[in-house]
Design a protein that fits this description.
By secondary structure, the protein is an all-alpha fold. Helix content is 65%, strand content 0%. 36% of the residues are buried.
C-alpha cells in the first residue's frame, strides 16, 4: 500500500507551516526542525489504518523514542488536560492545511472536512472543537493569518 499523493502534500505542508510558526515564535533551530518533522509524519499512517482514529497512535508508537511522540498521538482530538507549544502548532497547522496541501485557514479547512466527512462524523466534530480552542489563543490566530499570507504569495 502506498501513501496517496494528496496525503503526502498535506503532511509536507503541515510540517512547513509548523516550521514557519516555530521561526515566527523564535524557537531555536533544533525546535524548528523538530516541528517540521512531527508535522511531516503526523498523518503518515492514516491510509494504512482501517480505523482512521488510531492513525495517530500508530505514528506515535513509531516515534516513541522521540520527544514529541505524545503530541502526535494526541493531535486528532482536543486535549484539555495536556498542552504544549508543539501540540498547539500541530493543531494549528493541521487545521489550516487542507487535504491537498494548500494553506487555506480555519474556515475553508472546516468546509473541506465537512464535505469529506459530514457534520455527524467524529472527525468533523473534533475539528470544530480544536478550532474553537485555537481561536481562544490570540497568538495562534495571528499565526494563522501570517501563514495564509506567507504561503499564498
Amino acid at each position: 500500500m502506498q501513501i496517496p499523493i494528496n496525503r503526502l502534500k498535506h503532511c509536507y505542508m503541515v510540517g512547513k507551516v509548523m516550521e514557519f510558526c516555530a521561526k515566527e515564535l523564535k524557537l531555536n533551530e533544533e525546535m524548528q526542525q523538530e516541528m517540521f518533522f512531527i508535522g511531516y509524519v503526523h498523518d503518515s499512517m492514516y491510509d494504512f489504518e482501517k480505523n482512521e482514529t488510531k492513525h495517530d497512535e500508530i505514528v506515535s508508537n513509531m516515534l516513541r523514542e522521540t520527544i514529541f511522540s505524545k503530541e502526535v498521538s494526541l493531535h486528532s482530538k482536543y486535549q484539555n488536560n495536556y498542552q504544549s507549544i508543539a501540540l498547539d502548532l500541530l493543531y494549528l497547522a493541521d487545521q489550516i492545511v487542507d487535504g491537498y496541501g494548500n494553506v487555506v485557514g480555519f474556515k475553508k479547512r472546516i468546509e473541506d472536512i465537512l464535505n469529506r466527512h459530514g457534520k455527524d462524523d467524529g472527525v468533523y466534530k473534533d475539528t470544530i472543537e480544536i478550532v474553537d480552542y485555537l481561536k481562544t489563543k490570540k497568538e495562534l490566530v495571528e499565526l494563522e493569518k501570517k501563514c495564509i499570507k506567507f504561503f499564498n504569495k
